[in-house]
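Appendix B, record 7
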Amino acid sequence: MSARLAAHYPQGPREIAALDELDFFEREFEPGQYLLREGDRPKYCSFLQSGYVYRHKIVGDGGRQIVSIHLAGDFIDVQNILLDQSDHNIQALTIATALMVSVEELIQAATTHPSIAKALWRETLVEASLMREWIVNVGRRDARARTAHMLCEMAMRREHAGLGPRETFDLPMTQEQLGDTLGLTAVHVNRTLKALETGGLIKRHKRSVTVADWRGLQQVGDFTSGYLHLERTNT
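Structure tokens (predicted):
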């Protein structure tokens, strides 16, 4: 966790020591298990060590919109630590392990050490940048571009997190979950993935995706990586 914050904003020995002294505990979540429900008062801030989790909102007719996906090395809910209640749900997408620390402890560390506060602030700003791009993706790109853009983002974020090369990765989502992410039906998702495969951009085997033409996939998805604010990016 301290390495993640130091990547956002330099941390000195005192700040690293303060972070290491936080009273963390590890918790494992099963697929579908809630880390936080809409309306809950956030008690803990969590840092994902393994697996995937996702945020989502439920609308009046029961429909679900997935608004972000988090992978190992991500903070999950820094954006909630100053709020009285969560305005969305956070669920495990796969088996996931997270380090949990109380909100009060983390706020105290940030209050005492301004560089920790700045790093946490930047974390929320980067999350906001990703959410803006997701709004654009669902609101203004067609189904083929939306899907290609999402694949490019996941590939690059996984690579940056040290989870494997961008050219081959597992996409641990059902077509229904992909539909709830992209604002499409499961049938439309299936048709769109097949079109990307037929076009020579990707290859699929079950949930494994191989990017056959990275630049082509970027072009179709209207994808540039600036909004990810990665410290080192190989585009």
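Remarks on this record: The mean pLDDT is 94. The first strand starts at residue 25 and ends at 29.
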